[in-house]
Amino acid sequence: MKLAYPPEWGKLMPEIGEHVAAARARGLEITGDLYVYTAGGTSLDTVVPSWAHDGGLEAMKQQLKDPAVRARLKREQIAGSTGWWNIIEACGGWSGIVLTKASNAANAKYENKSIAEIGKEMGKDPADAAFDLIEQGEGENEGQTPVSIIVHMMDESDVKTALKFSWTSIGSDSGVVDLTKGAQDDAHPRAFGNFPRVIARYVRDDHVLTLEEAIHKMTGWPSAQYRLAGRGVIREGQWADVTIFDYDTLQDRGTFDKPAVFPTGISYVLVNGQVVMDHGTHTGIRPGAVLYGPGYVSTGAAQ
After folding, report:
1. Over the stretch 189-200, which tens digit does the pLDDT of each residue have?
2. H or E stretch covering 266
3. What are the extents of the domains in the chain?
């Protein structure tokens, strides 16, 4: 849940809260979740209108070689295109889009620079700079270009407003980051610090939430929404998923320039009653299990 459009920062989020509260009062089960950063992370090909993605990544790269196609794409990046969300507009322009992984050795020099800056260095329009980076990206990431970006498109005031809604929970919006394969180069700090950041910044420092409210939004509330029996609270008979931390020293440390940094202040992590993290060291125990929601139907095949 985010408000990604600068002209509406500080305005629309309270209205969203009013609409959802009214719907919940009518009996509709509407909830939302958010991470506590003002930038998202995605693939650079999101700046390309949807129709150009037809046929897959390689087909799109071929289209980007055509000057006429590029001209059309540039027009639509300004005017809009059916079925496409304009992430450039959401960031307030190319300065809000930062390259984190070029997936091309020759273009690595542009990493951690905005597309606007890269365009100036290339002597090109920012759109053409983006198209070149996409076209020259090597490899593929789940059907998308492996060229990664951080997009600065949210406002701190809206994050705080959304956190206060009783019906919001907190998630990281991050997949697993495999540090053994260099994935940290284009990671988002939310993968390493989102939950500690909630407590360190929004409870301890800024007093947006109480500690109890924050923990509930990260544990009991999402577990209830996903109908995960036996999870989310500390109670006899429940699965013991427990994080033990020092309130005074808990701190996220990852940044957008250096995201893959673990937080401080976490003493132990227990999963299903067994200690898996002991003062920053993994014990080697792997007691995790797949959690199925209420819509899961067993096919009888091996899972």
Report:
1. 999 999 999 999
2. strand 266-271
3. 39-152
